Amino acid sequence: MNFVTFKAYDKMKGQSTGEATDFGPSNIEKKPIMSVHTKFFVYRIQNLRYICKFCDLWTWRTSEQKSKGQLSIGRSVLTRLPARQNGGVAFSNPDSLHPWASLGVPTPRQTQLTATARTRLAHLVELNDVSSPSDAARWAGQLAREPHILDDLRRVRPWLSPVPPGTRREALTAVLAEIVDREWTGFLVLLGEYGPWVYAPSVADLQELSRHYAALVLASLPASEQTVLDAAQQLQQPSATHISLLARLEATDYRQPQPRVVSAPERLAELERAFWHAAEAQARRRVQEWEREKR
User: pTM of the entire structure?
Assistant: First the structure.
């Protein structure tokens, strides 16, 4: 189900029941004349509304904004910023270029964040509702160019089939189709503009992952470059293409110029591992639940 206005769903629900439109859970249970399909759509919109309140997310990225590299967040639009316009990039330590490049960040701190973008680093940026198998191909077509989505979804699902040969769009379509087949409906979400992609089965699961990622960002903000670098190196896996969350953030100037808190690299690495462990635990639980529901 793509994003349809809440007003349209209100109208659909009112016509189905002949009563006032209210998406409260108690009303859904008390209206036996509502069709099964309508109940399902009402439940999905109820979840979406709850997420909107939780994340202050009232608009989503449109096709036109996607082509321009823009993200609709809350009531403002953030643009994926290009390199600094002064012809050069300021680095605190030129010798640090090589170690960051080995972690997948050839030009650290290249992107300057606006004040608004800085406040949204740990907040939900994009939410896509996946309510049927047909959604897999649609979202894959729109999100195939996202650099980390394929690796993020597969990292926490080691049981998925190998990626078939073909284009990136075809690979993402296959991965999303298998996830929907094993876990059924959910929310395909980008946590933070430079954060991870997740597929969460419910609002509660999405909140849990959001808390884990926010804890990582907040802990790394006052840390020194060397501390973050040491933590990212601890997270690096031999022969792995996955770029750690700490390394992705280092592509921006998100850290404070003067570190105020001495953080241990082990603590930052532990926070990132906790996020991935939580995402994998949710996926495993949902696979088991859906297997039981299909019987």
Answer: 0.70
